[in-house]
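Chapter summary example.
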Amino acid sequence: MRTSLLTCLLCGCLLPGCTGFGPPTGEKWRELIHGDSSASAVQGLRSPDAEARRWSVIALARQGDPAGADKLIPMLDKSREPSALVRATAAAGLRMLGDKRAVSALLAACGDSEPIVRGEAARALGALGGPKEVPALARALREDREANVRLEAAYALTRIGGENALPALVAALDDLDASVAFAAHRALLEMTHQNLPPIRAPWQTWLEQRPPSN
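The structure predicted for these 214 residues follows.
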């Protein structure tokens, strides 16, 4: 069940732009007969074909072995992996593997030139990061040009933000994208237990007047 769920999550999020909606020809039969092969997946990461590399990333993530993170972390580097879709899949795979050693590389990926990579990196930081990653996520929420990246940053801050995330979330109530503003308001409600409307002014007043935290 875990294997099937992971495959569906990765494929459902990262299939746009692909030529097909399933694994490479013959992969399902090979797995049924032989099971997953870590060695073949690692070898596939060196394929000249981006789709083959992407499915190798998925195969490593699907195995659930944290050691696979060592192979996926380099795939976030644009100089190592030219395909944005493969880099985004690597970020999603690292989130599923749950290895915190990936945090530094994910922070760097938040500055990727492609929004699909930045969004997956922000989402992964929400699962793997902590207080030290709040400034980078807050910056993404304030400054990223893509609404989907700002949305993922808002969700990530909901999970790990704490007090330091509040100013960025309050500012995001003015976001021109309604989904981002909604996510910021929901985060503020959950994090502060204040029952204020989705308008920046009352939240800003509360933020400035609240007693300092101990």
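To summarize the output: The first helix runs from residue 2 to 14.
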